[in-house]
């Protein structure tokens, strides 16, 4: 029984870490611009697919992987510059549609360019499972969890200890005030998109050896990441991480104990309950409308 | 060039122009989740339509392929079928990549009366028999029976079924549940996974902890079975693993890596073309298809493209025999197809059987040293 | 006051002459699909455009209606009309049940909740294969009324046209009534609407339920017309398609809904020959529309040419 | 009996005491002003009385009956109307429609009858449009009868809010800084308008910074500072009260 529980936990945490990275991407962009970026999942896919493409093209990992992070970051920057900045301040729904449009463009272009097949990457440090109390853990899972944890720490440092990070936080609290004190909120927008895209791409690369990837892999990551971000409370970085992990773990336990047919519904039932009973998510801040 | 030569050339050209093309309609899932099925299917059709046209067409008329992509959405398939029938006025239709797409087209096709060769997997396409609907490709029931036969032969009586939640797996699951008792086998675990799932270890852990499981039967296609296979290895499960007919491709071995070793899967002869003995009746046709496809598209063949090949040539042969594209006559000739050797096996249609394949048309393959070989 | 209905007359004329202009049954089929989508989009626009509430799971309600019309007559022998009503009641009740808690939420939270609702409906439809045929879907028996089976496209064309005309007329009326003003008012300023006595939650719930019922009814119509249903009707992608129709046509614009539905129903047919690039093309069109006409086609054009509102 | 009684009212936001133990009552037919420096808690007081916030402590009574826990729309049904310091105009609608929304509670709001435009409802709606236009003329918006709200200048929108509130046919009208942001000429007009409203029998409660206007109009005045009641009384009592001079006027 313990082995079984542990197995579900490993499995849930690994996949949950990717959701957490996706959720962080949502959060960073949401804080900087109030936009829910439905193209976030595509950056995850882009990372995985580009890593496969560059390694297949014969580039060494040390070159291929940074490239597979850099290019999506640029794509994120481009997205902010070309599609989000021109309609700043538009209605929520308009912004949602634009990000969906971008996700279609990215997905469609990759499908035409790299084809419709599934692809994998070799695991970074071998395929020999580690046995812990009867459960098995893949070394690649440690990579996913480890790098995610480092990323979260790095982001915490960035937002709380560096000037650019603080500027971005300030913008999320009050755009007008941030502009008054001389923060370039346009640049904040660009940085947030590039960062989110880069984080997503990195996550995509890390999980590809476990999960494989294909041109449409981003849809699911995007949706689950969004669920994670809302579970944690939109706008809260800690919430995003906890929410993402929670979605992954609950999914794994749901598949194991309840019903594997309905496991995909479980995160969404969870989100409805959370929204009904704690509408700001687990860590969201209460905002009072000022009239 | 002589004047006669020029006249002849002009004559040939003008007759080619004058002859109305025979229109081949097709709705395939070239994008969306079923894209890796629809893609080789379309490529196969395009290739052979071009081929036939280079050889002078069919009944002296050129062929024209009218193709629409349903994006793996059954509702779109229905609209495109309408377009093929009403607007393009095609002579026959090959396609409907998925069962959902096929079934959404069937009511229109039956009403309009157009010969229809489906490429979908589920048995509902041809059972009950529908006047205009044929499919010369394996059904999930045959696949289930073929796997269960093999299990029985190996003395396996208790199995775990793991099927995907897409149409292929769900229909396969239903068929397996239906016929399993016939082979004296019981399903002691019955789990599913999503076609886009990235991890199936919770389900497999559950299977591992179910007492008495002697083999795992995975019913799915695409990347899912590869992930499942990897997870099985990772969890240290050593039970025999059987896959249905959705994985027999080079891609599967590449994706699953070393975990694929020893896995059994169903596939048509096409997947082991180069290893078939020369005495095998399917040898010429599969070799020719592999050569043509890989030569033109520079990628590995898949059984799905092979199915498109078989279905397309069955209707082409029927048109040749009928000597016309009259829909009723072509339909009758398709139904009269006998001993057609395709990439998927020998097809013998009757009024009661619009599929015409038996369970031995699928070969039981095994991964040995990173390649598919026929299992002993 | 009569000018209010001017657009309606134009629509009526188009509907009346269209059957004489179209070359074959395919275009009739396309017109019927446009009509069905137009009614759904109209209902959704009342919710999104007029009341300012997002629903990203509307396809779920279409799925409920469609499958009610497929499952109940097939497995339980219900009369198709009763099944259609049952579907609408189910969709409406489900909407009412979740609406109350949902409508305390705003913006993105609401988007998330409705998205989740739609996905849950979709998963149920895919999993209950015994009744719904699972992912492959199932055939639908023809719609019968007073012993007549409605199974020709011509019949459906006129039925859908009448539904569309009534919906347009009712929507115009509704939005220019105390009920409609209260809805638009709470979109403009929720607190202002509240202090003049509008029970905002009740109005949001009412319009959400109404648009769910619209969607369910048209889901039933789709099911009977096509003769086949598949769970992809209830897909997230379908929900997005509908929202896109609302936004591209024009939020809070009755005729924008029609234009959006017509254009975006035709677009996949127009892009069908693009072979692989259609996803990209669709995405680019969405982005350009939103950047250059964020208010949508009809309001933007109306503002440019004469500024007359509907 | 007082039309409005506020008894020991307090409101705390995350430990910040925005309103502390404030009591006062408003008699029918008067113009009652609430004044005080920025941040004194005047708007919070309005939000509490009109049901937008729930008080932490104390009681609010309209016609002697407690209205604690009632939603703004329920208060509207009791004849309580208000305007806002930060404009709350529905920019997606016509000016006239904004006013018509104000009459919401007096109309048949049946969805079905509206959709099929029952004749009685249609007639009533046409009459209402006339009524709304009359109200717009009453507040001096005769030039904006067919305007869209988003095309109107700030000063006109402030009046539009008043017209909308009047469409409710209120007994008690709360005006939150009706003259803020207006030039002296416009302020004078608003001064006259408030007087006209009071003369028509509506009890007016006013938050305003323009002292000239307050002193000119008010029957009684409540002075607040740091969320507390400083002084309450007639114009003259307030004008000459040393605390007021110290805390407010003198500063």
Fold and architecture overview:
The complex is a heterotetramer of chains A (291), B (376), C (310) and D (251). By secondary structure, chain B is of the alpha/beta class. Chain B folds into two domains: 3-138 and 285-357, Response regulator (Rossmann fold, 3-Layer(aba) Sandwich); 140-267, Response regulator (Rossmann fold, 3-Layer(aba) Sandwich). In chain B, 43% of the residues lie in helices and 17% in strands. Chain B has helices at 3-18, 35-54, 74-87, 99-112, 140-153, 167-179, 201-208, 223-234, 250-256, 283-297, 303-322, 327-335; strands spanning 22-28, 63-69, 92-94, 116-117, 133-134, 158-164, 186-193, 215-219, 241-243, 264-267, 340-342, 345-347, 363-368, 371-374. In chain B, the strands form three sheets. Chain B has a seven-stranded mixed beta sheet, sandwiched between helices. In chain B, strands 2-1-3-4-5 form a five-stranded parallel beta sheet, sandwiched between helices. In chain B, strands 11-12 form a two-stranded antiparallel ribbon. The longest helix of chain B has 20 residues, at 35-54. Residues 1-17 of chain B have low confidence and may be disordered. Chain C is mainly α. In chain C, the strands form two sheets. In chain C, strands 1-4 form a two-stranded antiparallel ribbon. Chain C is 75% helix and 3% strand. The model of chain C has no long low-confidence stretch (mean pLDDT 90). Chain C has one domain. Chain D has 251 residues and is α/β, with parallel strands linked by helices. Chain D has one domain (4-249): Rossmann fold (3-Layer(aba) Sandwich). In chain D, helix 3 packs across helix 5 and helix 5 crosses helix 6. The mean pLDDT of chain D is 91. Chains in contact: A-B, A-C, A-D, B-C, C-D.
Tell me the total number of β-strands of chain B: 14
Oligomer: heterotetramer
Helix content of chain D: 25-40%
Rounded to the nearest angstrom, the distance between the terminal CA atoms of chain B is 62 Å
Q: Given the C-alpha coordinates, what overall shape of chain D results?
A: globular
CATH class of chain D: Alpha Beta
Given as residue ranges, the uncertain stretches of chain D (5+ residues, pLDDT < 50) are none
Helices of chain D, by number, come to 10
Largest sheet of chain B: 7 strands, mixed
Global mean pLDDT of chain D: 91
Helix content of chain B: 40-55%
């Amino acid at each position: 029984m313990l082995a079984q529980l542990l197995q579900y936990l490993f499995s849930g945490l690994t996949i949950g870490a990717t959701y957490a990275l996706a959720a962080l991407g949502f959060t960073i962009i949401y804080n900087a611009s109030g936009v829910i970026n439905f193209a976030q999942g595509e950056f995850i896919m882009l990372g995985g697919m580009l890593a496969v493409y560059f390694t297949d093209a014969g580039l060494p990992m040390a070159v291929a992987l940074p490239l597979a992070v850099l290019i999506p970051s640029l794509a994120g920057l481009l997205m902010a510059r070309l599609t989000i900045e021109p309609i700043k301040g538009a209605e929520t729904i308009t912004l949602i549609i634009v990000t969906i449009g971008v996700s279609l463009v990215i997905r469609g272009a990759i499908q035409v360019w790299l084809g419709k097949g599934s692809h994998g990457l070799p695991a970074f440090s071998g395929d020999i499972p580690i046995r812990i109390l009867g459960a098995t853990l893949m070394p690649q899972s440690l990579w996913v969890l480890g790098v995610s944890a480092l990323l979260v720490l790095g982001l915490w440092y960035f937002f709380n200890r560096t000037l650019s990070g603080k500027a971005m936080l300030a913008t999320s609290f009050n755009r007008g005030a941030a502009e008054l004190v001389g923060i370039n909120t346009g640049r904040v927008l660009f940085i947030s998109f590039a960062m989110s895209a880069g984080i997503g791409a990195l996550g995509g690369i890390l999980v590809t050896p476990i999960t494989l990837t294909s041109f449409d892999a981003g849809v699911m990551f995007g949706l689950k990441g969004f669920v994670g971000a809302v579970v944690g409370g939109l706008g809260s970085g800690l919430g995003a991480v906890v929410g993402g992990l929670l979605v992954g773990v609950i999914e794994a336990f749901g598949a194991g104990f309840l019903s594997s047919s309905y496991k995909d519904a479980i995160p969404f039932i969870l989100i409805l309950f959370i929204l009904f009973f704690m509408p700001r998510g687990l860590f969201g801040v209460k905002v009072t409308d000022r009239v | 060039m002589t004047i006669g030569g020029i006249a002849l050339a002009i004559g040939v050209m003008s007759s080619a122009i004058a002859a109305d093309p025979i229109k081949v309609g097709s709705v395939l899932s070239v994008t969306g989740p079923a894209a890796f099925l629809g893609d080789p299917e379309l490529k196969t059709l395009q290739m052979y339509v071009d081929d036939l046209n280079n050889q002078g067409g069919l009944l002296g008329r050129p062929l024209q392929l009218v193709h629409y992509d349903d994006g793996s959405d059954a509702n779109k398939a229905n609209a495109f079928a309408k377009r093929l029938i009403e607007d393009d006025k095609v002579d026959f239709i090959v396609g409907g990549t998925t069962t959902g797409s096929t079934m959404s087209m069937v009511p229109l096709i039956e009403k309009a009366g157009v010969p229809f060769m489906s490429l979908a997997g589920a048995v509902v396409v041809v059972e009950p028999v529908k006047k205009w609907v044929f499919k010369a490709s394996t059904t999930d029931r045959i696949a289930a029976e073929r796997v269960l036969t093999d299990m029985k032969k190996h003395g396996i009586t208790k199995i775990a079924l793991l099927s995907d939640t897409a149409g292929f797996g769900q229909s396969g699951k239903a068929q397996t549940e239906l016929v399993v008792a016939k082979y004296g086998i019981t399903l002691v675990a019955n789990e599913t996974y999503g076609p886009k799932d990235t991890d199936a270890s919770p389900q497999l852990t559950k299977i591992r902890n179910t007492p008495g499981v002697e083999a795992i039967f995975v019913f799915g296609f695409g990347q899912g079975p590869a992930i499942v296979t990897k997870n099985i290895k990772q969890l240290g499960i050593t039970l025999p693993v059987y896959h249905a007919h959705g994985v027999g491709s080079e891609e599967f071995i590449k994706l699953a890596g070393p975990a694929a070793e020893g896995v059994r899967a169903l596939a048509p002869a096409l997947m082991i073309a180069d290893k078939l003995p020369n005495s095998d009746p399917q040898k010429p046709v599969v070799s020719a298809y592999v050569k043509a496809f890989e030569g033109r598209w520079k990628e590995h063949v898949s059984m799905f493209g092979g199915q498109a090949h078989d279905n397309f040539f069955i209707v082409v042969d029927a048109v040749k025999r009928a000597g016309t594209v009259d829909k009723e006559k072509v339909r009758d000739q398709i139904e009269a197809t006998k001993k057609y050797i395709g990439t998927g096996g020998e097809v013998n249609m009757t009024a009661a059987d619009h599929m015409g394949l038996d369970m031995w048309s699928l070969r039981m393959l095994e991964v040995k040293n990173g390649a598919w070989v026929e299992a002993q | 006051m009569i000018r209010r209905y001017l657009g309606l007359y134009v629509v009526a004329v188009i509907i009346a002459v269209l059957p004489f202009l179209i070359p074959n049954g395919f275009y009739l089929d396309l017109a019927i699909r446009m009509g069905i989508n137009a009614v759904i989009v109209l209902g959704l626009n009342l919710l999104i455009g007029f009341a300012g509430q997002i629903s990203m799971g509307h396809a779920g309600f279409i799925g409920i209606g469609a499958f009610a019309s497929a499952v109940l007559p097939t497995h339980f022998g219900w009369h198709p009309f009763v099944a259609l009503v049952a579907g609408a009641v189910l969709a409406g009740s489900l909407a009412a049940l979740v609406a109350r808690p949902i409508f305390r939420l705003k913006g993105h939270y609401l988007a998330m909740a409705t998205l989740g609702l739609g996905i849950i409906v979709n998963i149920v439809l895919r999993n209950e294969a015994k009744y719904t045929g699972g992912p492959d879907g199932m055939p639908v028996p023809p719609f019968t009324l007073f012993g007549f089976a409605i199974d020709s496209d011509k019949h459906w064309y006129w039925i859908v046209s009448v539904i569309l005309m009534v919906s347009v007329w009712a929507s115009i009326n509704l939005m220019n009534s105390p009920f409609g003003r209260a809805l638009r008012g709470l979109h403009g300023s929720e607190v202002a609407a509240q202090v003049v006595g509008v029970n905002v939650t009740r109005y949001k719930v009412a319009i959400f339920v109404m648009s769910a019922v619209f969607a369910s009814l048209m889901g039933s119509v789709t099911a009977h017309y096509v003769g086949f249903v598949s769970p992809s009707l209830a897909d997230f992608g379908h929900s997005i398609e509908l929202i896109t129709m609302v936004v591209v046509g024009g939020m809070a614009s009755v005729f924008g809904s029609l234009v959006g539905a017509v254009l975006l129903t035709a677009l996949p047919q127009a892009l069908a020959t693009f072979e692989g690039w259609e996803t990209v093309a669709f995405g680019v069109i969405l982005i350009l529309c939103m950047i250059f006409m964020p208010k949508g086609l009809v309001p933007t054009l109306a503002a440019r040419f004469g500024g007359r509102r509907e | 009996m007082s039309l409005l009684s506020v008894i020991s009212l307090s409101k705390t936001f995350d430990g910040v005491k925005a309103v502390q133990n404030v009591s006062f009552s408003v008699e029918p037919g008067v113009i009652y002003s609430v004044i005080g420096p920025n941040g004194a808690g005047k708007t919070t007081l309005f939000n509490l009385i009109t049901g937008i916030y729930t008080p932490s402590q104390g009681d609010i009574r309209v016609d002697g009956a407690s209205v604690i826990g009632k939603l703004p729309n329920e208060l509207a049904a009791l004849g309580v109307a208000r305007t806002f310091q930060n404009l709350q105009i529905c920019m997606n609608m016509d000016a006239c429609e904004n006013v018509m929304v104000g009459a919401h509670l007096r109309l048949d709001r049946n969805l079905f009858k509206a959709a099929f435009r029952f004749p009685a409802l249609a007639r009533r709606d046409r009459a209402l449009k006339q009524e709304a236009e009359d109200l717009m003329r009453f507040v001096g918006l005769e030039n904006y009868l067919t305007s869209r709200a988003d095309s109107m200048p700030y000063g006109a929108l402030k009046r539009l809010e008043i017209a909308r509130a009047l469409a409710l046919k209120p007994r008690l009208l709360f005006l939150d800084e009706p003259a803020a942001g207006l030039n002296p000429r416009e302020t004078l007009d608003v001064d006259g308008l408030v007087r006209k409203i009071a003369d028509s029998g509506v009890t007016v409660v006013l938050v305003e910074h323009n002292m000239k206007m307050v002193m000119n109009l008010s029957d009684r005045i409540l002075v607040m500072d740091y969320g507390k009641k400083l002084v309450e009384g007639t114009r003259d009592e307030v004008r000459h009260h040393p605390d007021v001079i110290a805390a407010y006027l003198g500063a």
